[in-house]
Amino acid sequence: MYTKLVITITLITLSIQSQAITSDLKKDYDDFRKDYQTVLNLPENKKEFLKKFKKLEQDLNTKYEKFGQKEGELISPESNQMALDIEMLEPLKIIAEGEANKESCSNAAFTNELNNTSDNQTYQKIKKQINKLCK
């Protein structure tokens, strides 16, 4: 009887802790997505873009790393989505690192074409940004 009670209390405690971790991760994921949307909606003015992108991209990578540390060995759909989101930003990173020169614009367009099967909506947004930044 006593053993069943201890097991039940332990399961309830683990369940409550699991929900707390899940809500904490959910908050972190929502923060990441908010910043990700900010990156996708950066001004298409080359100077403003270059000024803001690098910092935002670093922040996203930091948030992703912290999320992974909190998550532990469990790999959630949110973690997978965050990794995909960061990968989808690679063309914009190429432009930022190359100061939006002709070569970086060409490489970014090519890289974005490779991403067009992952997330068509983001692919289109980034394609539009590339065209405006590289005109």
| Major sheet summary line | none
Number of helices: 6
Could you estimate the helical fraction of the residues in percent? over 70%
N→C terminal distance: 75 Å
Instruction: Give the overall silhouette.
Output: elongated
Concise synopsis of the structure shown:
This protein has 135 residues and is mainly alpha-helical. Helix content is 83%, strand content 0%. The protein has helices at 2-40, 46-71, 77-88, 90-97, 102-114, 120-133.
Write up what this structure looks like.
With 135 residues, the chain is mainly α. The chain has one domain. Helices cover 83% and strands 0% of the residues. The protein has six helices and no strands. It has helices spanning 2-40, 46-71, 77-88, 90-97, 102-114, 120-133. Helix 4 (90-97) runs antiparallel to helix 5. The chain starts with a helix and ends with a helix. Mean pLDDT is 84; it is low at 8-20.
Q: What's the SSE blueprint?
A:
Elements: H1 2-40, H2 46-71, H3 77-88, H4 90-97, H5 102-114, H6 120-133
Which terms would index this structure?
135 residues, mainly alpha
